[in-house]
Specification:
40% helix; 9 helices; Rossmann fold; three-stranded antiparallel β-sheet; alpha/beta
Length: 243
């Protein structure tokens, strides 16, 4: 049976879907109350403060009896992907993580992104002038601590967070024997915008977490199940077949 509900407490909301408790950290209330004060908390503290926010939310769900500490995963896209990358290299609290279009190295990002000023707005300077802040806030700085199986998802043509970030994280994890899978969505940029491909993104995530949280067989990401065409009798039945 699938149960769905959503509860909001302060800036943490969570929902229960198909046996998963899915927690969301929403900074919106804080931004509305004091945008500049909230932004200042992240200034020169990206990743570090974000990780604390996520882990504090996990602690709340565990303390409330809603989450099993041995079955906790994390996922996100874009900024959420960056936070997930930071968690996968700096924390051992998760059994599996998914990094979607995430930054793994702020210097790599700075020199390749199409919105270079964003980095300066939050880190204060460029990598040559202040390498220390780029090290502090980059997931790759903590790669030696990485232990968590990680799924990396990225658009082939992403200009906002160039795909070099994904390859860098994958190589760092592989070098340390950490289980990692990487899926590149060909023809897409920062967002995956077509329905079938959006479905593929979510199916890849679901299969990844089903394996590490529920013990389902490890999916073969080189031959994912795809829906067949509608049957000729017009029933519209969709069956799952393998390529």
């Amino acid at each position: 049976m699938r149960v769905a509900c959503k509860i909001v407490r302060d800036r943490l909301s969570y929902e229960v879907v198909g046996g998963f408790v899915i927690g969301h950290y929403w900074p919106g209330n804080a931004v509305a109350q004091s945008a500049e004060k909230f932004r200042s908390l992240n200034y020169r503290n990206l990743g570090v403060g974000d990780a604390w926010d996520v882990i504090s939310g996990v602690d709340y769900l565990i303390k409330s009896g809603l989450a099993d500490p041995a079955r906790v995963g994390a996922m996100g896209w874009s900024q959420g992907g960056y936070i997930s990358a930071f968690l996968t290299t700096s924390s051992d609290r998760f059994v599996a993580i998914s990094v979607g279009a995430g930054i793994s190295n702020w210097a790599t990002y700075y020199y390749n992104t199409d919105i270079t000023p964003f980095t300066i707005n939050y880190l204060g300077n460029d990598p040559a002038e202040d390498p220390a802040i780029y090290l502090k806030t980059s997931p790759m700085s903590y790669i030696k601590k990485a232990r968590t199986p990680t799924l990396i998802q990225h658009g082939e043509l992403d200009r906002r967070v160039p795909i070099a970030n994904a390859y860098e994280l994958r190589q760092g994890l592989e070098n340390r024997g950490v289980k990692v899978e990487m899926v590149v969505y060909k023809g897409f940029g920062h967002g995956i915008t077509k329905p079938k491909s959006m479905r593929a993104v979510m199916q890849h995530n679901l299969s990844w977490f089903n394996h590490y949280i529920w013990g389902d067989p490890m999916p073969d990401f080189t031959a994912p199940p795809v829906p067949s065409k509608k049957s000729k009798d017009g029933t519209g039945v969709v069956t799952e077949t393998s390529n």
